[in-house]
Amino acid sequence: NQLEEAQTALAGPLYADVGGDLEVSFEFFPPKSEKMEEQLWDAIRTLEPLGPRFVSVTYGAGGSTRERTHATVARIQRETSLAAAAHLTCVEATKEEIDQVAEEYWAAGVRHIVALRGDPPRAGEKYQTHPGGYENAAALVAGLKKLHPFEISVAAYPECHPDSADAAADLDNLRAKMDAGATRAITQFFHEPETFFRYRDQVAAAGIDAEIVPGIMPVTNFAAVKRMSAMCGTEVPAWLGRLFEGLDDHPASRQLVAATIAAELSRRLYAGGVKQLHFYTLNRAELAFAICHLLGVRSRDEKAKAAA
Ligand code: FAD
């Protein structure tokens, strides 16, 4: 029982269990203004020394950030030591248009795509395949694999995607994405470690043998996260709401509370055998940096100093 194992592992001295063998990746979104661009690059430069496996850049709803996502991914690939992954969705585009975007990534040296279906352009509507477009993420993965030997990550849903009839259909869809050529799934955010452990067991029981990486969203704005959780079917535990009561006018405290909760969630996942985490950074470096630090992730310089 993975939950009991995790609890036993956590019973010792605080943070004695962090081993430095955790691998991390970071997600950013493409900036809309010069000021946001500065914030993004500050985040990238702060997190780069931690040696993440990759960093990814999201693709705006309906392909609205196509150029900005491309420019950001290409610049990361060109100007940093990081491996950049580009998110790509099927929304509002023909196969030819999407293939063209992928070709541009390949030409820019980008070898990793996070392949997604995307959401309908207008919230609340049913997803419709664009005429001549890819019908879902599995079809997109297959299309990308035909173009080039990209490394491909896809999305996974520990609490089931709202469009799935049930958990079994959701797992069948994950299997289809893996069979089409994806090598890893990154999960939607969730709030309790048990949610992930249960899902990992379901994935294994379904015979899906892929790397499932928990997506960690540090919660600083409870109202916003509650809205997002409702849209994607993520359970919000009562304790989370209570922790944010009375903090509306205390943004600095909210950051500290967010770091504490996300570090605790990450530490429990690690105690349960998770060795890879993906952080939704929202382009702010400090939270992800502090959480990684608590989990024993150190910069290359620090590791060299410790080894000397
Ligand atoms: P899919 O895996 O294709 O499927 C979604 C659902 O539809 C599944 O429940 C599946 O069961 C059902 N389904 C699929 N095909 C069929 C079919 N043929 N018949 C019946 N049912 C079917 N969105 C963005 O716009 N930009 C991003 O950059 C972005 N990044 C993300 C990163 C991560 C890690 C995650 C978890 C999500 C991200 N999303 C992003 C959100 C994502 O686009 C939405 O969750 C979307 O609704 C589903 O995308 P998917 O790739 O999971 O879809």
Automatic annotation (TrEMBL):
Could you tell me the Gene Ontology terms of the biological process aspect for this record?
methionine biosynthetic process; tetrahydrofolate interconversion
- What EC number(s) does the entry state? 1.5.1.54
Taxonomy, top ranks, is: Bacteria, Pseudomonadati, Pseudomonadota, Alphaproteobacteria, Sphingomonadales
Reaction equation(s) it catalyzes: (6S)-5-methyl-5,6,7,8-tetrahydrofolate + NAD(+) = (6R)-5,10-methylene-5,6,7,8-tetrahydrofolate + NADH + H(+)
> Which keywords does UniProt give here?
Amino-acid biosynthesis, FAD, Flavoprotein, Methionine biosynthesis, NAD, Oxidoreductase
CC cofactor: FAD
Concerning Pfam families, the annotation shows:
MTHFR
Q: What are the record's GO terms for cellular component?
A: cytosol
- What is the top EC class of this enzyme, as a single word? oxidoreductase
This chain belongs to which protein, by name? Answer: Methylenetetrahydrofolate reductase
A single MF term (Gene Ontology): methylenetetrahydrofolate reductase (NADH) activity
Matches recorded under InterPro entries: FAD-linked_oxidoreductase-like, Mehydrof_redctse-like, MTHF_reductase_bac
Q: In which pathway does it act?
A: Amino-acid biosynthesis; L-methionine biosynthesis via de novo pathway; One-carbon metabolism; tetrahydrofolate interconversion
Query: Which protein family is it in?
Result: Belongs to the methylenetetrahydrofolate reductase family.
